[in-house]
Specification:
Layout lengths: L2 H17 L26 E4 L14 E5 L9 H19 L21 E3 L13 E3 H16 L5 E4 L4 H15 L1 H7 L13 E5 L15 H9 L5 E5 L4 H4 L4 E7 L2 H10 L3 H8 E4 L1
Antiparallel strand pairs: 1-2, 2-9, 3-4, 5-6, 6-8, 7-8
Helix pairs in contact: 4-5
Bound molecules: zinc ion.
């Protein structure tokens, strides 16, 4: 192996390590307690969706979900009600497609979960792993549209890593455990099954202004700002926002985008929520 190759491999491992850093204890007030949220906003009706946590593609059976209707005071208005019905249908559809799935320590994916609709991403940083240049088809299409739109404003955005298999994460994690012991490894590496990248809905991006690296500074650059302001128009959210670390369990990652579909992304953006908060407010899991 040439020195150049070795250096590349070290850089790639380092980038992955940075991203999986800070697996803090996940807020225990998470989805598993979502059923108790009810009373406060007293919904007028609910819709029950017979879905399997949206993991249709992975043979993973999960709980049914209920999508809450907003109890808006303006609901007497007929148009508003129609809009609400439409919104619920759209959110229900997103759940059924698996777009609103949560993956973390408490909600891991099974080892055989692999999306069956992975599609190749065409805008990528070339010196990163080829195996990760995929997203679920709908997310990939939305990503391409977003990158094209950004380019119209002179903003260059490229993928560094997207889909990451259970196996890939396992190799990484096992290597860390062998080198540092499990206790240390758990402080900086996601275990296999616990990385959102396995869903095929997450993508790390970067740009020339930061040398295509994954860095907190990205949020202050033109490209990072463009994403924060516009990603939701394409169904993406900044998944680990600043100041929400205790809710997401992750440090601020301006480069990590998550596809959730247009309806959820717009509401999450406009209301300044995390995906966890959005689901707590809108979706109930039935256990
Ligand atoms: Zn990421």
């Amino acid at each position: 192996m040439t020195n150049e190759k070795k250096i590349k491999i070290i850089i790639i491992i380092f980038l992955i390590l940075i991203e999986s850093f800070v697996w803090k204890v996940y807020n225990s007030n998470d989805l598993s307690s979502i059923g108790i949220i009810g009373g406060a906003d007293g919904p007028t009706s609910i819709i029950v969706g017979e879905v399997n946590n949206g993991l249709k593609n992975g043979n993973h059976s999960g709980p049914d979900v209920i999508i809450r209707e907003h109890n808006d005071s303006s609901k007497n208005n007929e148009n508003q009600t129609e809009g609400d019905d439409n919104r619920i249908e759209l959110l229900k559809e997103a759940v059924e497609k698996g777009l609103l799935i949560i993956v973390n320590k408490e909600n891991p994916l099974s080892m055989d979960y692999k999306p069956d609709d992975l599609k190749e991403i065409k805008y990528f940083v070339p010196d990163r792993s080829e195996a990760s240049r995929y997203m679920r088809a709908e997310a990939a299409d939305a990503f391409h549209q977003m990158v094209d739109k950004a380019a119209e404003s002179g903003v260059e955005i490229k993928m560094t890593t997207a889909y990451r298999s259970y196996h890939f994460q396992k190799v990484l994690y096992d290597n860390y455990v062998a080198s540092y012991g499990q206790a240390a490894a758990d402080t900086f590496s996601a275990k296999p099954g616990q990385s959102e990248h396995q869903t095929g809905l997450a993508v790390d991006v970067s740009s020339p202004s930061v040398g295509y690296q994954l860095t907190i500074d990205y949020g202050e650059k033109n490209e990072g700002k463009w994403l924060a302001e516009n990603a939701h128009k394409f169904g993406f959210i900044i998944r680990f926002p600043k100041g929400k670390e205790d809710i997401t369990g992750f440090q601020y990652e301006p480069w990590h985008l998550r596809y959730v579909g247009l309806t959820a992304a717009k509401e999450i953006h406009e209301q300044g929520l995390t995906l966890e908060e959005f689901l707590q407010q809108n979706v109930i899991k039935k256990w």
